[in-house]
Design brief:
about 325 residues; mainly alpha
């Protein structure tokens, strides 16, 4: 045959049995050698990241705990010890610590009465706000009634009204109806100004409940009250617990409203300590145990319900 014949090369020629396999190219990446390096690098970065986060959290905890520890130790030391040196000396000399300041403080009938007044103001206010807001939040979220959206917009608008605007008008109203200077007046004022935020919070939380779940309960013959008490409230427990903690802390630590609406017989602990400060000046033996007594109850409430609090704060962030 004349002419040049062409041969197509379709791929590498198959190797014969027993023939040596071709050596790998020098430019090919050594994946087996690089993988351990990547694994070690990722592990190191995760370790450094977690260590940095833990270090920051420890630093924040120390910054927060140090004043609390100083207040506690100062409340357990005598007036002479507090005047002579710092509270940290009690760490090396525990003989300075005693409960004499607390015994004298609780023996004061004014402080004891103020403590129970604080309980009688904070607990009913928290219960009323949570119950009324839960009912209203469910109604705004799942019940149809005339003017629902307009009323809810009014509730949202009340969120921007400062407390200071309503102090004098409400004080005149309470004076006219005989509630000024009573525990009931302080409770009603806190409930009125706590409800807008509480209703807004619970309505948004209840609205995230799947509609199919409520419709299935209605098809099974459940009434609205039964659906609310047996289905909505258990599902909304994290939000209810978060709201209760916030409301309790706000009312327990309040002094502005109590200073205006409470008299000597109904004043809470914050007002009583403020009056003690005016009478005794810088008497740390009176102020330190009173301040720690006012602080320890919110701490106990927070740590007792912190699991529900975290769930309520994180609710809605993850579907």
């Amino acid at each position: 045959m004349s002419g040049h014949s062409t041969v197509e090369r379709r791929g590498p020629s198959p190797s014969l049995p027993g023939s040596p396999s071709p050596a790998p190219s020098a430019s090919a990446p050594a994946s087996g050698a690089a993988a351990p390096g990547r694994r070690h690098g990722g592990r190191l970065s995760r370790l450094l990241g977690s260590s940095a986060v833990q270090g920051v959290l420890v630093l924040v905890a120390l910054v927060w705990i140090t004043p609390l520890a100083g207040l506690l130790l100062s409340s357990l030391r005598s007036e002479q010890d507090n005047a002579s040196d710092g509270w940290w000396t009690a760490l090396t000399d525990p003989s300075q610590l005693s409960l004499d300041n607390y015994t004298a403080l609780l023996a004061d009938s004014g402080i004891g009465a103020a403590f129970w007044n604080t309980v009688l103001i904070s607990v009913p206010t928290t219960v009323l706000v949570v119950v009324v807001a839960a009912l209203a939040g469910y109604a705004f979220a799942w019940l149809e009634f005339p003017g629902r959206d307009g009323i809810f917009l009014v509730v949202v608008g009340l969120l921007v009204v400062p407390v200071q605007i309503g102090l004098l008008p409400v004080a005149k109203l309470f004076g006219a109806v005989g509630l000024f200077g009573t525990i009931a007046g302080v409770v009603l004022f806190h409930v009125a100004y706590g409800l807008p935020f509480a209703i807004f919070l619970l309505r948004n939380y209840f609205a995230e409940i799947p509609r199919e779940m409520l419709e299935a309960a209605r098809m099974d013959g459940g009434s609205e009250w039964r659906i609310f008490s047996r289905l909505v409230l258990p599902l909304g427990r994290p939000a209810l617990a978060s709201l209760a903690i916030f409301q309790f802390l706000w009312v327990w630590n309040d002094m502005l409203v109590a200073l205006l609406f409470a008299d000597t017989g109904s004043q809470p602990l914050t007002v009583a300590l403020q009056s003690q400060m005016r009478q005794f000046g810088s008497n740390i033996g009176v102020l330190a145990p009173g301040a720690f007594l006012s602080l320890v109850v919110p701490l106990v409430v927070f740590f007792a319900f912190q699991r529900h609090f975290v769930q309520g704060v994180m609710a809605g962030s993850v579907k």
